[in-house]
Model the fold of this input.
Amino acid sequence: MLDMWHTFLQTLLNGTPWPDLLSRDDLLPDGWTMETLLLAAIGVPVGLAVLHFVRVLLILLFGRKYHALRALNQACEFDDGIRTRYEYKVQLNSRKQLERYDFERFFLEEYGRNPQTFGAILESAQNNERKYRKYKAEVERLLGVKLGETARIGFFDPLEVKLCKRRLKEPITSPIFHCTAEYTSPKGQNHYSRTADYTVRQMEAVGKQYRKNVDFQASKAYQRSLMTDSLRYDIMKRDNFRCVLCGRTAKEGVKLHVDHIVPVAKGGLTVPDNLRTLCDQCNLGKSDKYDPHGAN
Done:
């Protein structure tokens, strides 16, 4: 049979016209006709295609691994509410600004504008990554093969494994936060840009820095740093440069201080409503005492 096909193809390649080729019975084995040869040539691929279709249908209906994977996919829910990429653009006023642009500061400020949104994105990515590790391990156990990160399909994989791999879930576990800083010259002739991509890990670090900054702003050191000379003067002027407890003034030989009604050590803030004028003796006597249910 192989010799027959070899002779047939060789004759065709030698330039024998199709009508002459179809009329040559010497190329065929005994009992064969050219019609039989053509039917065999057409029938074999069709038969293989039908056989493949039947195999696929049987797997879809009765495949143990295939149906186990479908059940696993239904049981394992991932968060589909996040995107693979988040885009940000910043327009700058000069090329010098562009060259010195601080992307870390940009993402820190952007995080601070909406910490709940960023926190939800990062939490979803972390949950997806944790669930995907378990999902992947269960799939590898189920199929009996190791999966690449992109679940590539090998040419010689068994058919059921191929079909299963095509149905694998691939959740978003590592979204990218992409920022483009741009500068365009006044006449629009020149355009410059710089870009930065922040990963989930980097944005988690940004989130930690943001929370650290928030904690610092609420700290005692920060509250005390807000007590400027200008604010101190405004409080004393509001109180008529007089101790609000004993009524004495600087003309009576006392020094005037600005006191936190709720002490900073007890969570008091440096805001006008929490500030008052006291003489040095009243302020030292009060120290950090505070009665939330009585006079202060």
Notes: The CA atoms of residues 48 and 54 lie 10 Å apart. The first strand starts at residue 85 and ends at 91.
